[in-house]
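Researcher: Here's a chain I'd like modeled. Treat it as a single chain, no partners, no ligands.
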Amino acid sequence: MTTVRKDKLTIDQGLYDLIVNDIIPGTGIEVENFWNSFQDILQDFIPKNKELLDIRDEFQTKIDAWHIDNRDQPFDATAYKQFLSDIGYIIVKKPEHRPRFNIRTENIDPEIATIAGPQLVVPINNARFALNAANARWGSLFDAFYGTDIIPDKGKYAKGKKFNEKRGEKVISLANEFLDRALPLKFGFHTHVASYELTGETGKKRGLAITLENGVATELENTDAFIGYTEKDDILCLLFLHNGTHIEIQIDPNSNIGQLSKSGVKDVILESALTTIQDCEDSVAAVDAEDKVLVYKNWLGLMKGNLEESVEKNGKTITRKLNPNRKYDDLHGKLLVLSGRSILLVRNVGHLMTTDAITYDGKNIPEGIMDGVITALISIHDFRGNSPYKNSRQNSQYVVKPKMHGPEEVRFTVDLFSAIENALNLPRNTMKIGIMDEERRTSCNLRACIYEARERLIFINTGFLDRTGDEIHTSMEAGPFLPKEEIKKEPWIKSYEDRNVDSGLACGLKGKAQIGKGMWAMPDMMADMLEQKIGHPLSGANCSWVPSPTAATLHAMHYHYVKVSVVQDAISERKSTPIDDLIKIPLMPVDYELSEEKLAAELNDNAQSILGYVVRWIDQGVGCSKVLDTHNIGLMEDRATLRISSQIIANWLHHQICTEKQVTEAFKRMAVLVDNQNANDPLYNPMAPGFDGIAFQAALDLALKGAKQPNGYTEPLLHQYRYQLKREQA
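Model: Modeled as a single isolated chain. C-alpha cells:
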C-alpha cells in the first residue's frame, strides 16, 4: 500500500489524492491546515474514544458478575434496577433535566423539522442505489400499485411485458380510493369524475373545475389544497398540498391507462422519500482505504451534484444523475419550484471500529472520527453552492450517529463535531446529530442523551434489531433468551418503542426534529406493508424507514391518512411507561419447552440468515442485500439483522441450550440451501461441500464466538475476514 506521510499521520495514497485533488478544491480550506487540524483532532479525541470503549467493557463486566452472583436466586427486578442505578448504568435525573427541557436546534430544513414522511436508507458505496434513493423524492403511485403485490399476480405483469388493462383498471380504482381520502370532494367521488379542468386565463387567477360523469359540477372539500399546475407534452399536471406533502395528478386521455379512466388521469405522483440516509455504516462493507475512497467519492458526487452511474437496461445504456427541481405555475402565474430530491443525511461509523486508511503514530485511527472530518469537509461544497442541486437550504450537515452507548458517548460526538467545525471554519452547530436509539444504555437514558445534543439534535430513531442484539449481549449471563420471534412479544419492546416517542415529545422534538421508526424488512411484500406500516405514524413517528423508492411511495400514503402532529399532541398527554418494563429481560421461563424439532428449526433459521448475508459480505463486499429466508421470502439484511441472529445462537450455546456440534451441523445444512438459493448468481462462490471457505468460517465464527465480541457487534469478525480475502485476492 502506497502512503503519504504528514508529521504523525500516514495516509493511504488513494485517499490522500482524493482529499487533496478532488475534495479540498472549492472548499476554501488550505491543504496543510487541513492535515494539521486533522492531526490535532486525533490527538485530542483518540484517548477519549478509547476511554469510552473501556467504560463499555467495565459496565459489561459488572453486569455479568451481578447475573452470575444471582443466578441461583429468583430474578429480583427491584434489586436489578437498583444495581444498574448504583453503578451508573441508569442515570438518575440531573437537575437540568427538571423541569422538562426543549431542544434548541436551529437551521433545520422543513423536510426534517416539520414535514412527516418516509425515509430511505441506502448504502452510499453503491452509486446507483445512492442516486435512486436521492431521486425518490417523487414516485408514481400507479407504478407502485401495478408492479407490486398490492394487486395479486404481479409476476404476470412484470416490467417490459404488455400492458394489462384489467390490472390498469384496478390501479385506477385504488388510486381513486386514495384521492377520496387525501383530496375528498364536497360531494361525489373521484371514480365518478369525468374531467379535471383549469379555469381562468394564463397570467391571471386560476382555479380547478371538477365535473362528475352525470354532468354535475363539484369541487374539493378543501379548495386551498390545489396550489399549482404545469402543462407539458399535452399532459396537464395538477399540484395539490395535503398534510405538508404534495400530490400531482397527471392527465393524458391518450395514454394507455388514461384511456381507461373516465377523467383521463394517467398517473398520480406522490412526494415520497422526503429524506434519505446515505449510509457509511451498517449497510456498507468498507474495510480498507480502497473501500473508504469509494464511500467518500460518492458522498462528494452527491454534494457537488455530479454523481453519475451508467446502467444497462433493455439493451440500452442509461446514465443516472440527480433529478432537477420540479417547476410549476402557482395559481397567480408565478413560478413555483419544488425540490426534485430527498434531503440527504449521512450515517457515520460508530465509535468502535478503527481503520488503516489513516494511521496516527503508527496506529489505526477510529473510523468514526475519520468519517466525521471527511464527510463534513465534503459537505462544504453544498454550503458554498458548488452544486447545481442544493441539499440543505439551511446549510446544515445532517449526521446520523449509530451505536452510541449513553449520554457520555453523545457528549463525545458533540465535542468532536465542535472540533471539526473549528477546524473547517464552519459556523457553530452546522453539524447536526441524529441519535440512533439502538443500544440498551441509550434507551435507558434517552432524555439525558437528548440533553447532551440539545443544540444539534435532528433525529431519534428506534432500531429493534440492533437493540435486541445489545439486549441479548448485555444480559448474556442472565440466562437463555426466548427465540427471536417471541422476544418481540415481550413487554420490553413496547416500552422501548413507546418511551422513544415519549422522550422525544417531552424534549420538544415536535416541529423541530424527526422521531423515527425502523425498517420494513420485506421489500417484496408491499401489500402487508401497506396494511401494517400505518402503525408507525399512528404511534407518533413523523418518519419511518422503507427499503425502496416504491415502498416510499406506498408508505407516503399513510402520512396523508394520518396527521402525525395531531397524534403527537394526544401522545403528549399520556403517562410515559416506567423503566421497569424496559429493563425486563426477555428470558426463557423456567418451564419453557423447547422441543428438539423447534430447536433445530430455530438454529436453521438463524444459521441460514447469517450465511445468506455473510457470504455476500465477505466474497462480494455487499453490505446490504435481499436474502431469501428458509421459506424463500426475501428479507433485507444488514449488520443489525446479523447481530441479533448471531447473539441468540451465542446465548444458547453459552447456556447449553444447544451444542457447538449442533450449531456447526445447522450451518452446514443451511450452507447447502444458501448455495442453491444463489445458484444463478455468477459471482457466487458455493460453500458446500468443503465448508472450508473464508465466508463460511466467518459466518460460523459469528455464532461460536459471539459471546466474546464487544457488545455483540459483528463488525470486528466481518472486517477481519473480508480484509483477509481482499489481501489474498490482491
